[in-house]
Amino acid sequence: MSTTTLAGTPVEVNDEGFFVDPNQWTREMAEEMARADGIDELTPQHWQVIDFMRSEYFAKGTGPTVRILGKSSGVAVKELYQLFPKGPAKMAARIAGIPKPKGCI
User: Fold this and answer.
1) Please, which residues bridge with residue 3 across strands?
2) Would you name the residues annotated as active-site residues?
3) What CATH fold (topology level) applies to the domain 2-95?
4) What is the DSSP string of 42-105?
5) What's the pLDDT score for residue 1?
6) Rg for the chain (alpha carbons), in Å?
7) pLDDT tens digit string along 56-87?
8) Percent of the chain whose pLDDT exceeds 70
9) Closest Cα partner for 16 from 87, 82, 65?
């Protein structure tokens, strides 16, 4: 575990950059992480996925897989890969401040 500063606030992250405590996350932190990952601006579609990821995590204790994202988030799988090109479930989960979904490598 290590500490990083996002949007001026120190947060604890694991070795892959996922939040240890998802409650520390803010939208400003998400914007900063997205820019660091090459996403210039989080669009309404990005936020739709991010909000869905957080909702699923807090309801079920784990983030959704790409398959579930494609079926339930309102954003098609093809679009997910355009929005989060480095792997939709993993990249979106990290930006959403939740742990890496089960099944992601």
Assistant:
1) 12
2) 104
3) Arc Repressor Mutant, subunit A (1.10.10)
4) --HHHHHHHHHHHHHHHHHSSPPPHHHHHHHSSS-HHHHHHHSTT-HHHHHHHHTT-PPPTT--
5) 80
6) 13
7) 999 999 999 888 999 999 999 999 999 999 88
8) 96
9) 87
